Amino acid sequence: MGQVSRRNPASGHEGDPRIVADANPPPCLSLRSLSRWPAVPGHADRVAADVTAQAMRTLLEAALASLSTGDRGVLLLIAWEQLTYQEVSRALGIPVGTVQSRMHQARTKVRRALAGTDAGATYEELTTNE
Q1: Torsion angle of the four alpha carbons 37, 40, 41, 45, in this order, in degrees rounded to the nearest 10
Q2: pLDDT value of residue 65
Q3: What total of structural domains would you count in the chain?
Q4: Is the model's pLDDT at 22 over the cut of 50?
């Protein structure tokens, strides 16, 4: 009976059998098997949104920093905390009309700060689907 070769034909190296295993993944990890896995609904959209957010991060940070404290607070409560205008009004102790005004001012300033950039086009895409 002959010896089992530990030679990796792809690299020409003798040695550890794990090298051969790494060069030849098991069939369960093949692209064919991956195509049979069910797609996670919305996963591609979440990944695209994450990539877009990372690209826009620096521009958005600068745009948010340029807002007044009141405008920034309203924008963050509505955009990130997903509060309604009425909930923001109660939380901050200000009239709903003031919340609406501050939100309008914040959107206008952010839109102006992002205008003419790739992020500006993405911002318009995101805000038109509200």
Answers
A1: -120
A2: 92
A3: 2
A4: no
